[in-house]
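FIELD: query
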Amino acid sequence: MLTNLTDVQLVELAVSGETEAFDEIVKRWERKIFALCFGMLNAEADARDAAQETFIAAYRNLANFRGDAKVSSWLHRIAVNQCLTIKRRAKTRSEDFLDESESGEDRTFVAPEHLSPLRTAEQIERLNLVRQAVNSLPDDLKQIVVMKEFEEMTFQQIAETLELPLSTVKSRLYTALKQLRSKMERTPIEVV
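FIELD: result
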């Protein structure tokens, strides 16, 4: 049964032509890869495209997987590159990637029943402010925040994925969090 195999074993089987092995890799990692893409792109359609392109690129390059890093780190690295490519394309088309009206339309927030409408509105506003602040970060800082805070990756996993020294990852996260704190302090939520 394929579900009992490690990621590396699945890659080896997929390289030898076992397509079901690659299907299992996709099943294991599609949610995490989509979440990473969504965190970086903040648009569901773009995140779906990036996640799909990640797995297409991974499939095409299975034979090049050397096993130096974990399969998950390899997939995350491909996903980051796909997201950066989508962002570059959007900029060349003169689209404003962080346009508030586009990024907020396709999302619905459902509050727990025990929250009052005012409290729910405050939480949605706070969430939107955090999202805007994260989206305003430079890409090199944003990707680390998304991976650490939203994907809950370890510093070591991020360093492997982005092929950066561990100290650089920690430094960038510190810088990003400092910038986020500053942005959030400048935009307090007004209670009506």
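FIELD: remark
Residues 94-111 have pLDDT under 50 and may be disordered.
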